[in-house]
Fold this protein.
Amino acid sequence: MFESQYAKCEYIAKDNVVFHVWKKEAHFDDYRNPVMASLEMLREHQGSIFIVDARNGFEDVKEDVEWGFSYFLPQLKKTECSIWGFILPKLSHIEGEIDLWSKEIEKNFRVIRAESYQEVLAQC
């Protein structure tokens, strides 16, 4: 498990899920350290589902988006993860950010958007 003031990441064995919860806005190392922790868990648990609770989500800075697209997503692809779930309300204040990420993620992963953890699992 990883926890900081910005995010909490844990592996939930019964569901084979790496669960990443954003607590508040984070950028640069405060953003990348939790993401790297989730990536390590996804490497340890090949083929697990990645669920991101983005209800406390935020707009990423340009440098973090570039890092995510050029480093994180290619590394995530190597984990055999095939499903990325987003937990969000029906309408979110970060729709543009979610659309940006979803378009890139959908190139290699199935994306599920739901309002709760259980709803994501139900669609897997």
Remarks:
- The first helix runs from residue 29 to 44.
- Residues 36 and 72 are 8 Å apart (CA to CA).
- The mean pLDDT is 95.
